Amino acid sequence: MIWRPRSLRSRLALWQAGILALTLVVLSALTLVLLKTVLSSRADEALYEYADKTARTIATTLYQSSIGGRTEPARFLDKDLQEWGRQIQVVDAHNGMVRDRSEGLASHRLPTDLDARVNGLKGLPTYQTRIDLGEHPVRIVTVPVQMGENVPYLVQTAASLEGIDDALRRTALILLVLTPSVFVLSLLAGHLLVGRSLQPVAAMTRSALAMEPGRLDHRIEATGTDDEIGGLASAFNEMIGRLDRSFRQIQQFSADASHELKTPLTSIRGEAEVAMMSDLTPEEHRKILNSIVIQTERMSAIVENLLLLARADSDQVNIKRVPVHLEEVAMQVFEQLERIALKKSIHLGIDQMDEAIVAGDALWIGQILTNLLGNAIKYTPENGEVIISVAMVEVSGSPSDAGIAPGRYGSFSVRDTGPGIPADHLAKIFDRFYRVDSGRSRDAGGVGLGLNIATWAANAHDGRITVSSEVGKGSVFTVLLPIYVASD
Ligand code: ADP
């Protein structure tokens, strides 16, 4: 099995080292090969130019001698022509005899092998490298002296390759020193950079380990960058934020629920103690028992609502999508609550009652309407007025309709002449256990869950509840539910 380091930092460093080493080796090799090619071709060019120029000069001299009827010159090479570092030699193309040579060659001669002569007679140059002529290899270029069709002589130029070898050796040495330094430096820089970039990851690990349900106030320090790690850190923080809010809501919910149940329990206990200790008349006993019954009814309502919300939260509620006549459900709820309204001398009326067939669950729709109409009757003072209406409406999808798909909806609205709801409370009345005036609401039998349940049910139907209210004048609650379409 291949060994793999556990830390990401080491793994990255290992990969970086491998890739860097490979790149540097390839780059160094390429540099040397390229340098050698460039220097060699440059040397060949220079040698060829020198030989060619000399061959042309000799050809001209020979031509002029032949025209003037003169004999061939004894020497072919002008000393001034001899360039430093390069040797030159003129040989007979037919027998290879040396006819002239530069001073630097002294008594030595440049080898003229058969290949060079054959090529020369064909008018072609020859390039050769000889390693047997001295300490360093020697490059020899042979060029023919062209006299029309004839090639009487060959000009050979030669230079030692010592300079090129030396340049390559020096470059190799520089690369040998530079490459490991670059390797070590970039490894160090990479290690530092990777370490810095991974710091938030370590912080995230620590935060995740320190996290407990009750202690979700930990946040990862912002990296100040919007790279992947920064994005991960802020996503992580947002997730903790959501968890934190959700845990707080649960805690708040449990505290509120206990508080709501504690109040009627305390009062039941107080009244029961009074009933036990004092000498009460049967009439007084009856009154106390009646009060206890009311309190237990209230507790049942709370527990029922809590169960409903618990089921809704855990997605256990199955909401049907069948055609429901909204106006029929509205009339049923109207009749059910008429008695209570009458008791408070509230005028309960109908403004509009159009046919509206919506897609949903009649039981849940009934629950929404009961909660809305129940609240209107509950909070409207005696001799007030509560008016309901059912109609079909068109939602266009403009910004004011945000949160609901454009289309046709069945609408049920309740208008009351109650106390109204102050603007700063309007958004909150849909929260669990939220009451604008808890004393008055509790007296009226309110728990603070009705609107939350109604909102949940409306949302589950892809509908929504809106409210508009004016303090001292009254409120209008409206629920919109999508109309039934046969293909649903
Ligand atoms: P509750 O059981 O207290 O009625 P809800 O969730 O139904 O709980 O309502 C939340 C709060 O909104 C109420 O306590 C009340 O203050 C306010 N509210 C609801 N409906 C009306 C209304 N029609 N008129 C005035 N206030 C209302």
What is the total number of structural domains? 3
Binned, the helix content reads 40-55%
Classify the beta-strand content into a percent band. 15-25%
Classification by helices and strands: alpha+beta
The CATH class of the largest domain is: Alpha Beta
What hetero molecules are bound to the protein chains? adenosine-5'-diphosphate
Instruction: Indicate the CATH architecture of the largest domain.
Output: 2-Layer Sandwich
Shape: rod-shaped
The major pleated sheet works out as: 5 strands, antiparallel
**What do we call the CATH topology of the largest domain?**
Heat Shock Protein 90
β-strand number: 12
Mean pLDDT: 87
Distance between the termini: 58 Å
Task: Find the CATH superfamily of the largest domain.
Answer: Histidine kinase-like ATPase, C-terminal domain
Low-pLDDT stretches are none
Question: What's the structural blueprint in terms of helices and strands?
Answer:
Layout: H1 8-68, E1 86-92, E2 98-101, H2 114-121, E3 126-130, E4 138-147, E5 150-160, H3 162-210, H4 228-277, H5 282-313, E6 322-325, H6 326-343, E7 347-353, E8 357-360, H7 362-379, E9 385-395, E10 407-416, H8 423-426, H9 438-443, H10 450-460, E11 464-470, E12 474-482
Parallel strand pairs: 7-9
Antiparallel strand pairs: 1-2, 1-5, 3-4, 4-5, 6-8, 9-10, 10-12, 11-12
Helix pairs in contact: 1-3, 3-4, 4-5, 6-7, 7-10
The structure holds adenosine-5'-diphosphate (ADP).
Adenosine-5'-diphosphate is lined by residues 371, 375-376, 379, 416, 418-419, 421, 429, 434-437, 441, 446-452, 475.
